[in-house]
Specification:
Length: 226
């Protein structure tokens, strides 16, 4: 009788990815680089929020900034970051719906030894796959825009459970979306993740950006050297 074997492929892939992520995280912390993984669905405002955060960090005297822009194709967002005067590497995944550590390693190598105080990864626009893959970040944040609706927290719970902070974006649209239940969003998100920090922001008006940057700077002070 032929014996059957079950191979846990996903478990093995994630274990190897996690080991590489731990090594990357430790190396960046030792050199003073705070690495942030930013995740959201397409159109939530990831690049726009990054530009607002970069502007606020610069106003506070931070200049050593870098961004890894992950997309299925194109370099549209990477060019926006470069136009703002920030080093950026475009990471095209060619159809892969998430970013893995081998991709992060290759993108980071493309900076050719540049030193950063803050390095951001704009992950693939997706609220499913990126939650499973550790990218070596010191903190993970996710965006949810007001036009998307508050109920995404009930539809994509693994993402909300995996991150350190939820950034509600495009809050200037709240008057146009009376069905957006901010209180219910807070309640459901914290039920999934009691330690979750929540920021209500608008990159257009600047609402919430200083508080978010305060938190990022506190996270950096706690997690990296220098």
């Amino acid at each position: 009788m032929e014996q059957k074997r079950v191979i846990e492929v996903k478990k093995n892939i994630l274990a190897a990815n996690d080991a590489a992520a731990d090594a990357f995280r430790a190396a960046r912390a030792a050199e003073g680089t705070f690495f942030v993984d930013e995740m959201a669905s397409p159109g939530a405002g990831k690049t726009t929020l990054l530009l607002a955060v970069i502007k606020e960090l610069r106003a506070r005297g931070v200049e050593k900034l870098g961004v890894i822009e992950a997309d299925l194709e194109s370099d549209v967002d990477a060019l926006k970051i470069k136009e703002a005067g920030v080093p950026s590497v475009e990471l095209n995944t060619r159809g892969v719906c998430h970013v893995e550590m081998n991709m992060v390693d290759m993108a980071f190598a493309a900076f050719a030894g540049q030193q950063f105080e803050y390095l951001f990864l704009e992950n693939i626009g997706n609220l499913v796959c990126p939650a499973d893959f550790d990218t070596g970040a010191h903190t993970r944040i996710m965006l949810l825009s007001v036009p998307e609706g508050w109920d995404k927290v009930m539809k994509y719970p693994p993402m909300f459970a995996a991150v350190d902070a939820l950034i509600v974006t495009k809050c200037d649209y709240l008057p146009l979306n009376p069905d957006f239940d901010m209180a219910r969003l807070h309640e459901e998100a914290r039920r999934l993740n009691p330690r979750l920090e929540i920021f209500e922001t608008s990159a257009r008006t600047g609402e919430g950006i200083p508080a978010l940057v305060d938190w990022l700077q506190a996270q950096r002070a706690a997690k990296v050297q220098g």
